[in-house]
Each structure stands twice: as C-alpha cells, then as structure tokens.
Amino acid sequence: MGDPPILQMTGIRKAFPGVVALDGVDFSLRPGEVHALMGENGAGKSTLIKVLTGVYGIDAGDIRLGGTPVRFGGPLQAQHAGISTVYQEVNLCANLSVAENIFIGREPRRFGKIRWAEMRRRSAALLEGLDLHLDVTAPLSAYSLAIQQMVAIARAVDVSAKVLILDEPTSSLDASEVDRLFEVMRRLKRDGVAILFISHFLDQVYAIADRMTVLRNGRLIGEYATAELTQMQLITKMIGKELNVLERLEEEPRTVTAGADAQPIVEAHALGRSGAIAPFDLSVRGGEIVGLAGLLGSGRTELARLLFGADRPDNGRLEIDGKPVALRTPRAAMTHGIGFSSENRRTEGVVAELSVRENIVLALQAARGWSRPIPRRKQDELVARYIDTLGIRPADPELAVRDLSGGNQQKVLLARWLITEPRLLIVDEPTRGIDVGAKAEIQRLLVELADGGMAILFVSAELEEVLRLSHKIEVLRERHLVEELDNTGGGVDADRVMQAIASGANP
Amino acid sequence: MTNLVRHRLFWPSAVLVLLLASNVFFAPRFFTITLQDGHLYGSLIDILRSATPLALVALGMTMVIATGGIDLSVGSVMAISGALACLIIGGLPDQDSVAGVLIAVGVALALSALLGVWNGVLVAVIGIQPIIATLILMVAGRGIAQLITDGQIINVSSAPYRVIGAGYLFGIPVSVIIVAVVVAAAALIIRRSALGVLVESVGASPTASRLAGIRARGLTITAYVFAAFCAGIAGLIFSSNVASADSNAAGNLIELDAILAVVIGGTALTGGRFSIAGSVLGAVLISALDITTYTIGVPAETTLLFKAVVVVVLCLSQSAAFRAVVFRRRNPAPVTPAVEVSA
User: Fold this and answer.
1) A243-247, A299-303, B118-122, B326-330 — which is least confidently predicted?
2) Calpha distance B258→B263 (Å, rounded)
C-alpha cells in the first residue's frame, strides 16, 4: 500500500508499577496521511504518544523513524528529529506576540541580536501558507483559542515537518473553527506531513482521518481504513462490548417526572452582567434538565456562572424558591443547594495536587467549615461509594487527581458536587475531552439524577447531547438568550436549534 | 528500603545525620549528653535550644507558604514582641512577679497576632502581593520596635521571664518544651480539623477552591495571624534568653532561614501541600549547621560560605533530576546518531 511508513512502532511495551499501560502495541504512520488513534480513556493513547516523544522510556519494542531505530530522551529531541506535538491546551505564551510565539527559542539572529523584521516576515509567510491572515505583532491572547491552536500548529510544522501529533485539538473549538483546522490539516497532508490525530469526536475522526488504530486496555485491537469501519463497529471495538446506553437514552421519552409543575427552584428575571451576558429570563424546576445551546463564546458559561455566584450580576434579580436572593459568592449559592462543575476542569475544577478523596469531599467540607471536619470513616465511605457508582479509575482514593485521565477527573468533580446533594446542579461541558464510554455514563447519570428530582442545567457545545438529554433548550447567540425550545417528548431536532442560533433575533 | 529513600524527608534527614556524625571527628564527645545540676548538657541539646526560635518561625511560615504567600515580617514581629514584653516587665514594680510577666507575655503575643491581622488583611482583603505586603511590616516593624524601646536596649532582670528562654524543666530546656508543645498542638489542630486540607487547596488552586465554596480570605488571614503569633513566641524566647530587648538583633534575617527551613522540609514555595514535620526538621538542620561550624572550627570569615555550600549540597540532594545524573539511576536513553540533536 503506497508509501513506506515514516514512523513504525512495533511490539511497544510500557509498564508502570502495578499496571501495563501498553502491551505489544504496533503503530505505523505514512507520509501524507491523517491517522486517528482511537480508544477510551486509559486505553493507552496518551502513553503511546509519550513513549513516542520520549517522555517515557519503553520496556520493550522498537521505534523506527524513516527506517532508522530511534529512542528519544525527551520531547525536544523528538522535535529535532521531526516529531512535533500540539496538545489540547495550547502550550504557548499568551502575552507574547504571534511571531514571538512561532520563533521562541529559535529566533533568527544576527550577532546575537534578534532580527525582528525577519521574524515577522517569516511568521506572516508561514501563516499565509496555512491561509491564516493575522497581525503577527499582536499578542497571541488577542486571538481566539482556535487561532491560537493553529499558531501552535504552524510553529510545530515550521520546527519540524515530518510527523505532527495533534492531541485533542478540537475539544474547545466550535464547528466553523473545526472546519478551519481541518482545512489546515488537509494542506499539511498535501505537503506530505504525517498527522497523528486524537479526538473523542467520532464525526470529526470520520471527516478527516484516512486510517485509524484502535487501542483497548493497552492492547492493540487493530488498524483499519476509515471507510471499512462504521461508527457503531468502531465504538464496539473501543469499549469491547455492545454499547447500547446511547441508543437507550435516545429512545427514552424525555418526560419530566418529579415536580414538573412545581415552583421553579431558580428563576432569573432580566439577570445579566454587562460584557458577559445580556439580561435573560430563565427558570429551572426540580426533575428538569435544561440545556444551554449555542456556539463557543455565545455566553453559555457566563450565564451559568451568574446562577452560581461565580460572577456577580449587575442587573436583574434572581429568585430561589420564589424568594429574591443575591448570590455574591459560590459559597452563597451552595447554601441554597446549587452546585457548579466548571468547564475548565484543571484550573477551575479539580485541585490536581490533592488526592481523589480530598477532592471529592472538598465542597462538602468547605460548606461545613474548617472546624467541623468530616470524620475520616465517613469520608472513606462516601468516597468509596462514589468511586464505585461513577466508576472512577484507578479506584485508589489516595492517588493525586493529577494522575487521573480527563474523564476520571470529570467524574471526581461530579462526585464532589453529588455528595453535597444539590437541588440544582450546573454542569458546564461535563463530557468534553472524554471518551465515548465515560460520556454515555455521565449522560445516563444526569438523566437518573433528574429522574430523582434534581434540577440540572446542562451546558455543552455538542448539540446532539443537549438535544438528547434536555427537557428544555435555551438557545444563546452572541451573549443573548434568544429562544427557549420545549423538548419534552423530544420534538426539537438539531436543525431547529441551528436555525435559532443562526437567525435568533437579538432582543 | 526504596520507600524509605523515596520519603520526602529522607534526604534532609540523611544530611542532618551526616552533619552530626562529621562533628565526632572534631569533638569526640559531641554526642555525649551529661546531667549537670539536674540540667541536660551537650551539643545536641545546644542544637535543639538554638533551633527553637527558628522552628517556631518556620512553623508559621509553613502555613503562610502553603497558602501560596510568604511572610518577610516575622523577624520584625519577633523584635516587637520582645521589645514590648521587656518594656512592660521593666516597668513592673517587682520584676519577679509571675502575674506581671504573664501579662507582659499576653500583651506581646496579642500585639503579634494583631500584626498578623494587618499582614493578612493587606494580602487577602486588599490584594497586595504577599512579598510586598509583608515587606512593609518587615521594614516598619524594626522602627516600631525601636520606638517601643526608645532606641535603647532594655535589660530586664526577671527570674520568671528568664525561665522562658533559659530555664529548665525536668532537665529539659523550657524553650524546647514550649516549641514541642506549640508544634504538636498546631499539627494536631491543623491536621485533625479540615484547616490543613483547605489551606492546601487554596494554595494549590485558588480559583478551583473558590468555586468549591472555600472562603480563602479567612484562611489566608488565619495563616498570617498564626505566623505572626509563632514569631511573637519566638521573639519572647529570644529576648528572655538574653534578658534584654535588642530591636536590631532580634530575629535579624530569620525570615530567610525560616523560608529555607520550609523549603528543605519539602513544602513548595508555590503553595499547596505542606509538611510541618519537614519544616521543623529543616530548622533543626540549619541550627545543627551553625553549631557544626563552631565545632569544626570553620574560620569566622568563611562561616557563611561554608553554610552556603552545605545548603547547595542539600538542595541538590533533594532534586530527583540531579540524583539521577549523579547516580545514573535512570536508564540511559540516548538518541541514535541518526537524529543528532542540533541547536
């Protein structure tokens, strides 16, 4: 089949104390192809990349780059050899200019002095090549996350253009930005760059990948051409069992069970914060899942933060159980039974340094105050129960949360709020960047919680999941809440929401 | 065995043992502890005694650093506390009055705590960076101490006050007992309540902590108050030991030794996880280092240099990356010549 592989990994084995992360995995990458690495959280995708880029050594196996055996001592050596990685979180300096970011550490110099003009010219040319027209002297922070990501890619490609690893590049991009990224990827493909692509969005994988390699529990399941595998077959291979949770959710009629006609738990009247979200009306009842739909930057998160007291509104009023309240801090919202799981899992969610146990009890402990510690036995009991219910892996309560995969960190965060027994749980992007299995579990959990009478405000960039779970969909556009759609019974389809997003009139 | 080596206090402990052992070559009776007049005497006792003010200051500093802050004013607080206590005792009709001394101690500690409130409010309420906020009191504090003593060194001759820094109980120096009690009580309160974990959470991630409903402000102020309180006790021990209040010498540069003790003890300056035992160990180590320079007979002019070398060695021994280079523990993973690293 065509070109010889530029990268060939055979029989890779990597063990950590107590767990074999990779067991005899083969992987090959050809020039000019987009190759997707698929698998659930903990399947070994990240480990494979870290082994390839020299972050970890390997216990057995062989890595060949362009036919020569290689063994890198670290990402920098890998980069010099022609393998660059762009991670989910953009690893650039937001306060430096675009050009500086592209050339940082390898600035064109003359007699030790940086040649700024040369640097700007070359940066602009490089970006033009990717069809990006930016002011390269502007600070990187002036551009959206998507553009920042493309700058990171431009840098990676310019540094070394043989193998490009894109680890979850699309998880914080919206649809049009993803299209733009794919356009860039196709250009690179034409130039003969081999791209290793990791994404949890199956649709995207099918849109861009030529081939895919599936891993499960550190073992190689197989390598397939994208065309020869349906999405359903792929999912089955990834999780190793028939996945019917998703379909089951699909078929279940969305009926509000408890307290549908009761008084709303939270009611916002013309609540707003200038520069963040225009005044909006919104009510959430017990047993109801209210979905927030809209493009990235449409004000979804800003709206959610107002309801939790994370930001303070500057107009309108908020009623809880029909009584006006002012939520000045998250703590105040918590005393009214509101919980909030942030979209920025790592910076605003879990505390990476602390253990799983400490993270899970954190909110409950904060509510009790420092002088009333939760007895250790009670902690262990609660934590064990939630590790079990949510399937947090590894199931070690004393492990630092930073050592958990993204999906498991998300579950820890959910567990933190669930043990506070909130009446309204606000979840912002709870399924972003996590695998299909965990995603379905989290969706099912939310449905169950709502069935149990909890009110849920569900924020997600993925329209399908908003449609699948929500009884009511609030559509946002350009920081305005433009329309409310009743989805009890599942009457709303994606087109209807898209239409609202596209044409919604700003009040 | 490997677990022992991996323990974060292994390397400082090892350096401490090495340091103590090296003294034996110069002073064969270094480890000998004798009982004279019902008091324990010996170099090890000297080390513990001289470590007491530093151990207290390091204890308080640990909590402040755990919140992600730093407190430069502890030395000045020591000076103020000692100065105020001596001023009050000096004004007593009977300097040997136990009640009078207790009042002096109480007032000095109350003022110390108040100074901690000042630091805490500047940092947590007004939002000044900790290093700048506490620099204010570091500089102004010496001035306040000078004002209290009117620029003089106040000498006191109070037997009860003398007990704090120079007395013995059951043969053990009272200052060592005080520190042991304070450290034990603090460790108990901090670790048995949720204070420890909440402070660690705030230090490790202020944003996530706020969204988890933690009121960081109160915790941060508490940490600065605790640090100043500990410094206050340290100031009393120091001034009691020399039976005078010297506003310039008391706690001079102790903030830097305290920060060093905390770092040696494995608490990161960025905040988060902290170790009280580590900080106390760090303080003892620094004190042992001072005593060692005397027994070994390091010339006075090179004492600081000698200390610096030991500290550098200690810090390097705590760095896993450095140990790997020295002991070649990590599997060498060289690049093949085909992909030679080029600059």
Assistant:
1) A243-247
2) 9
- Residue A346, both tokens: 């790592």
Complete DSSP assignment for B114-130:
HHHHHHHIIIIIS---H
Our measurement of the distance from residue B40's CA atom to the centroid of its chain's CA atoms, rounded to an integer in Å, reads: 24
pLDDT digit string, tens, across residues B70-116: 999 999 999 999 999 999 999 888 888 899 999 999 999 999 999 99
Question: Closest partner residue to B208 among A351, A369, A373, by Cβ?
Answer: A351
**pLDDT at residue A403 above 70?**
yes
Tell me how far apart the alpha carbons of residues B305 and B185 are, in angstroms, rounded to a whole number: 36
For chain B, list residues whose CB is within 8 angstroms of any CB belonging to chain A: 192-195, 197-198, 200-201, 204-205, 207-215, 219, 272-273, 331, 333-336, 338-339, 341-342
The residue in chain B having the minimum alpha-carbon distance to the alpha carbon of residue A310 is B211
pTM for this predicted structure: 0.76
* CB burial readout A21-31, b (16+ within 10 A) else e: bbbebebbbbb
Could you list the beta-strand ranges (E) of B9-166: 34-36, 39-41, 154-155
Is A354 close to B208, i.e. CB distance below 8 A?
A: no
Query: For residues B187 and B279, what is the distance between their CA atoms, to the nearest angstrom?
Result: 12
CB of A277 closer than 8 Å to CB of A303 = yes
Minimal Cα–Cα distance from A331 to chain B, Å? 4
CA distances from A495 to A299, A500, A502, A503 (A): 21, 9, 10, 12
Flag whether pLDDT at A256 surpasses 60. no
pLDDT (0 to 100) of residue B341: 35
Whether residues A354 and B197 touch (CB distance < 8 A) is answered with yes
DSSP label of A428: E
Return the residue in A63, A308, A328, A353 with the most chain B beta carbons within 10 A, the one to mutate for interface testing.
Answer: A353
Name the token pair of A329.
Answer: 């801090």
- The A residues from 339 to 398 touching B (CB cutoff 8 Å) are 340, 342, 347-354, 358, 362-363, 365-374
User: Are B205 and A352 within 8 A, CB to CB?
Assistant: yes
The CATH architecture of the domain made up of B50-319 is Orthogonal Bundle (1.10)
What is the strand order of the sheet A34-38 is part of?
A83-86, A163-167, A194-198, A34-38, A211-216, A219-225
Give the max Cα distance, chain A: 76
Q: Hey, what are B337's tokens? A: 């010549």
- Give the tens place of pLDDT for each residue, A302-327: 999 999 999 999 989 999 988 999 99
For residue B145, pLDDT beyond 60: yes
pLDDT at res. B342: 36
Q: How far is B186 from chain A (nearest CA, A)?
A: 14
CA A148 distance to own-chain centroid: 16
The one-letter amino acid code at B105 reads V
Tell me how close the Cα of A174 comes to any Cα of chain B, in angstroms: 25
CA distance A390 to B203: 28
A410 close contact with B: CB closer than 8 A: no
Q: CB within 8 A of B17, min separation 6: which ones?
A: none
What's the pLDDT band for A1 if we cut at 50, 70, 90? very low
Residue A139 token pair: 């600070």
Q: What's the CA gap between B119 and B80, in Å, rounded?
A: 15
